[in-house]
Design a protein that fits this description.
Number of strands: 0
Distance between the termini: 43 Å
Largest sheet: none
Helix content: over 70%
Order of helices and strands: HHHHH
Shape: elongated
Number of helices: 5
Structural class: mainly alpha
Length: 146
């Protein structure tokens, strides 16, 4: 497992991703495998919704900093990062029927797994951008307090 795999939370190499798929579905039939993966997709969607709510609070903190004379560059950078993270979080919340249009019933779990991996990567990027925004606002508050 590479550092990037660890940061993104998913294996990037195709063979490692296949191994992860096999670990998740095991010997389940396609319907049960899809149900198991769909649980992960739903969990990612719920986390993205919670992150989006938190990002709204951070956006308010950024505008507060700008309105109250805090140093502009950290606050502006923070709001750009939180908005970029919000766009990623919103992309996870969009409706998709892609897994339901697979060519065969056996392909449905793989399509759902690809969707879950894609959402996991986007969520982790959104989380890191939000954290960076929070760090910038904390630095801004520290500078303002000096």
């Amino acid at each position: 497992m590479t550092v990037l795999d660890t940061i993104l939370g998913v294996p990037l190499a195709e063979d490692k991703r296949e191994q992860a798929f096999q670990t998740v579905v095991g010997d389940l039939n396609p319907a049960d495998a899809f149900a198991r993966i769909l649980t992960g997709v739903q969990h990612n969607t719920e986390k993205a919704g919670a992150l989006l709510a938190a990002q709204g609070i951070f956006a308010v903190a950024c505008t507060f900093a700008l309105d109250h004379g805090w140093p502009r560059w950290p606050a502006l950078a923070a709001i750009v990062f939180v908005l970029a993270g919000a766009i990623l979080a919103m992309s996870i919340l969009r409706s998709t029927s892609q897994p339901f249009h697979a060519t065969s019933a056996a392909e449905v779990p793989r399509a759902a797994f690809r969707l879950m991996v894609s959402r996991m990567i986007r969520f982790n990027f959104a989380l890191y951008l939000t954290f960076l925004s929070l760090v910038l606002i904390a630095i801004d508050a520290f500078i303002f307090a000096l």
